[in-house]
């Protein structure tokens, strides 16, 4: 059989530890029950293996005792050297001595680890990123509608923007779907949840995140292409961009799904400590690295063009506007993710959650703002059509008034 990697979500490590220990103990009990009991009085046969909810006590003869240590769980129990003992009597196992709550002291619980404080913190985080994604989705749908409705805005550049907006929409929708599937029912034990719906939601979420990063990469590649080709573009490139933006994430996610099914098919696939998480993380880091290099190259090209004496004043102003837009695109290129990319997942969790959930939820709104609402070409087209609509309305009102007067 293929090897199993028992990587677990940090929040579920304690629960899964005791479940695994209980399963092993129950297997021993089951095998003992199938073994014929030795002859003799029932009271002299000894104590059978028993699971007391914390430890597994192996079978021993009457008059013997057994000692176990505290469960070896990091950040839960102090490293106590005390032993818990139980005696096997004619009436069965005695009570643990000393009791677990005396022998195995819990780690000191500070204010940051308080359950209620944590619950309140995550509720606040959820409200913030729900508002952020809702705002982003509304802005992105409006931006796509604007690009689609006005014929003069139909071009390769805006087509790429629409795909880019769509990746943000999928990412926001994936967050809401994942929350609905994983956390809608508090009675469900998330640590042992392993349903098809749960895994499908996580798979869709990972695909949306990958697609979002690779359309960020496409935007960077397209900006560099515009500068290198002196603001001209070829429609043939759009299919390559689509292949990179949607195809590479699809291939990556398919490899990840097959890998998880074959080697690590446990839980809901939402753990980030598994070795196979690198199947998703490595392509994301590659996209971030390439985007960062593109950003440096674009900045260099713009600086050269602005300093060039052969460039007219109008072109310099155009380059300056593009430079400002490029500087604003730093967070869109995913450069801020580099700060956390090479650190383990358990380091800087609060800061990571804030950047990736709260600030990341408003990223779609920022994209729509930069590429659509603050776009001079879009504003001019909206004003032109608004003026035409006003003129048409005034003309209709004048015709109606004229008809009433002549009548």
Automatic annotation (TrEMBL):
A Pfam family it matches: HRM
CDD domains referenced in this protein's UniProt entry, alphabetically: 7tmB1_GHRHR2 (cd15271)
Protein name, per record: VIPR1 protein
GO molecular function, one term: peptide hormone binding
Topology in the lipid bilayer: Multi-pass membrane protein
Similarity annotation: Belongs to the G-protein coupled receptor 2 family.
Locations listed in the record: Cell membrane
Organism: Nyctibius bracteatus
Source lineage: Eukaryota, Metazoa, Chordata, Craniata, Vertebrata
Predominant place of localization: membrane
